[in-house]
Amino acid sequence: MTKHYTLSQLADHLGAEIEGNPDQPIVKIATLLNASDQEIAFLANKKYRSQLDSTQAGAVILSADDAEFFSGNKLICDNPYVAYAKLAQYMDTTPSAASSIHSTAVIDQSVHLGENVKIAANAVIEAGAVIGDNVEIGAGCFIGQHVRIGAGTKLWANVTIYHEVEIGEHCLFQSGSVIGSDGFGYANESGEWVKIPQIGTVIIGNRVEVGACTSIDRGAIDNTVIHDNVILDNQIQIAHNVEIGYGTAIAGCSVLAGSVKIGKYCQLGGMVAVNGHNEVCDGVVITGMSMVTKGISKPGIYSSGMPHTTNKEWRKNIAHLRNLSDFKSRIKALETLTEQLNQTDK
């Protein structure tokens, strides 16, 4: 059933100022372009300001600077995008990952379950695990031996948590994520691979979110560590002994090789790769498809991915790239000749 809100209820929740009808009914959030008269939209980017003239939204969230451009019902706040995020949480209709402890869940008798834990069908929780209060474990999840999961954490269906992993409070794991699988550790003896058992684990802090099909490997000897308030997108590979600092965000399909250390408040775009044993300091932004081959010690924005172009132009540029060494030699020879001619003129 659709839940109805009044504009005044939403304003109270956000601490926003109302201009217009406080009793305006709101049923959901929509874009400026597609909103109906019982939906609320938001303006967080000035390039969409022109849509205020034509929007059919019942109300709009916007800043004080933009309020004069809209004559309808509005909620005025300092940061409309953050307000949108908080309102989306408040009005969220996403169902629980589980509603009770299902009869088909397999839970070892030594497992410690907190209060109000919910476990869906066919989940497996092995010996010695400790599950905090209000944890939700979705259908088909696997929780290995001696895992610890903090209060309020939610696992969607088919999440795998290997043995001895430690997870903090109020984390979210999307379906298919794998936490604590073996790191890629092998020695080579006369052409034969000798597996190195990975005896570390994974330590995950509070309020960490992990995207669908993202893998976080356990440490080889020391632990892989994900600090509080980190957000990881879908299909990311975090190798053994990686450490990711507080508040860092990493977009989809990125790869952090073994023993990489990422600082606090960093942002890595999609398909970024960081070579093993490199350290990235706090406050670094790395744009999509960049390859980090050496450490970064100064905050700032870094890029290396090549933007797309026509195939014809790309082939021409690659041909020039392959001849860089030859160009360098020819330029050096010209510089030497120029210097000799200048000395002759003197």
From TrEMBL:
GO terms for cellular component: membrane. GO terms for biological process: lipid A biosynthetic process. Keywords: Acyltransferase, Lipid A biosynthesis, Lipid biosynthesis, Lipid metabolism, Repeat, Transferase. The keyword Transport does not apply. InterPro entries: Hexapep, Hexapep_transf_CS, LpxD, Trimer_LpxA-like_sf, UDP_GlcNAc_AcTrfase_non-rep. The active site is at H240. Pathway: Bacterial outer membrane biogenesis; LPS lipid A biosynthesis. Gene3D superfamilies: 1.20.5.170, Hexapeptide repeat proteins (2.160.10.10), MurE/MurF, N-terminal domain (3.40.1390.10). The keyword Membrane does not apply. Its EC number is 2.3.1.191. It catalyses: a UDP-3-O-[(3R)-3-hydroxyacyl]-alpha-D-glucosamine + a (3R)-hydroxyacyl-[ACP] = a UDP-2-N,3-O-bis[(3R)-3-hydroxyacyl]-alpha-D-glucosamine + holo-[ACP] + H(+). NCBIfam families: lipid_A_lpxD (TIGR01853), PRK00892.1 (NF002060). Catalyzes the N-acylation of UDP-3-O-acylglucosamine using 3-hydroxyacyl-ACP as the acyl donor. Is involved in the biosynthesis of lipid A, a phosphorylated glycolipid that anchors the lipopolysaccharide to the outer membrane of the cell. HAMAP family: LpxD. PANTHER family: UDP-3-O-ACYLGLUCOSAMINE N-ACYLTRANSFERASE, UDP-3-O-ACYLGLUCOSAMINE N-ACYLTRANSFERASE 1, MITOCHONDRIAL-RELATED. This is UDP-3-O-acylglucosamine N-acyltransferase. It comes from Pseudoalteromonas luteoviolacea.
